[in-house]
Design goal:
This protein has a five-stranded antiparallel β-sheet with strand order 15-16-23-18-21, with no helix packed on it. Helices cover 10% and strands 44% of the residues. The longest helix is centred in the N-terminal third of the chain and has 23 residues. A hairpin with a 2-residue loop joins strand 8 and strand 9. The protein is mainly beta. The N and C termini lie far apart (99 Å).
Length: 366
């Protein structure tokens, strides 16, 4: 009898545990979405609906068929919901037909419980209009020796933007830019302080059809730190002492601009000596770099060279556009007894690894 009692108690405990486990994995029912609408768009359909206010709401499952009749599922997450209105707006793209499509919307909980389905329908517009739609969203704004081209494409249809303009040397530059999603691109090497006409057209990827050309006129600016002043003693590299890096001068309009490509673990090059006493203790340059690096200055006197223990390191962050860098080396100059007289120079070590591309211009003391 005692064994029978223990057996019954064990069975009861197992049942209670199982029920408890089911409760942990079941976060209850969820209400359906409301006020759902479907609006035709280029190669796609825009859906808008209000999601449940329940605390256990997690996402909305959207079920539909693509242009080939394949069943597709898309989960519209909470990141697509407007926090003020409670409405979710999302675009279902990739359609190549203009037939009506049904979209079944089901609110879902964290554990996947689904609400009653709400169905809306709409026919996507022809994707051929994508090129005109994208071109109509294009804006072009001036930047430092550049122009920023922005566009919107929420259709899911593949589009290319073709932009043509004259660069600072008068050469015609044509940029082909993938505009299949909303983004932006920078057009570089424009002549500053001079109006530049930028011709823009859009092209559908599928049939290569193009829009008419739209012309934007912008006047690129010039950063004050990019201006060359005749009274400043700018650094120049003595490439006879270069090590594990290549140095070129790609900009014929600026004799103080260099492109440095590191090729080993100890890339460095000395500068030529100062033509006049240093103007101050603050080093300034404009730069771009593909990776972070540690810049090390070896303090060299006229007629001398780099010596161990007589150097200063500073971290320089990666930058994908021209950026002004400054650092006050006053304390380091005192520590290492570097006076910055005529003929004194520095050896610039640009990191400790290969495959970094560093552009510098207008390096000087101030």
């Amino acid at each position: 009898m005692k064994h029978l009692f223990y057996f019954i108690a064990l069975i009861g405990a197992v049942c209670l545990t199982a029920c408890s486990s089911d409760d942990d994995n079941n976060d209850g029912a969820i209400e359906a979405v409301t006020n759902a609408t479907a609006t035709p768009f280029i190669g796609s359909v825009k859906l808008k609906f209000k999601v449940p206010t329940s605390a256990n709401f997690y996402y909305t499952l959207i079920t539909y068929k693509d242009s080939e009749g394949n069943v597709k599922h898309y989960k519209a997450g909470i990141d697509e919901i407007d926090s003020l209105s409670g409405y979710c707006q999302t675009t279902i793209g990739g359609f190549t037909d203009t037939d009506s499509h049904d979209f079944e919307l089901q609110a879902a909980t964290l554990h996947g419980n689904l609400s009653k389905a709400v169905t809306v329908s709409a026919a996507p517009m022809s994707g051929k209009e994508a090129k005109n739609y994208v071109l109509g969203t294009v804006t072009v704004t001036p930047g430092d020796e550049s122009a920023l081209l922005k566009w919107t494409n929420e259709s899911g249809v593949g589009v290319m933007i073709i932009a043509s303009y004259s660069d600072i040397d008068g050469n015609t530059v044509t940029e082909k830019i993938d505009a299949s999603v909303s983004a932006q691109a920078t057009l570089t090497n424009l002549k500053p302080n001079t109006p530049t006409n930028i011709s823009v057209k859009a092209q559908n990827k599928d049939d290569q059809s193009e829009t008419e050309t739209k012309v934007f006129t912008v006047t690129a600016t010039q950063n004050a730190d990019d201006t060359i002043y005749p009274d400043i003693d700018y650094f120049t590299f003595n490439t006879g002492g270069v090590n594990q890096e290549t140095i070129t001068q790609p900009n014929k309009h600026n004799p103080y601009e260099y492109e440095i490509r590191t090729t080993g673990g100890d890339p460095f090059c000395p500068t030529f000596g100062l033509k006049k006493p240093k103007a101050g203790t603050v080093f300034k340059m404009r730069y771009k770099a593909t990776k972070d690096f540690v810049m090390e200055f070896f303090w060299c006197d006229f007629g001398g060279g780099a010596a161990g223990g007589r150097s200063t390191t500073v971290e320089v962050k990666a930058a994908d556009k021209w950026t002004t860098f400054t650092h006050d080396y006053g304390a380091a100059m005192q520590q290492h007894h570097w006076a910055g007289k005529v003929g004194d120079f520095i050896r610039m070590d640009m990191g400790n690894f290969a495959d970094n591309v560093i552009n510098v211009r207008n390096m000087h003391w101030e």
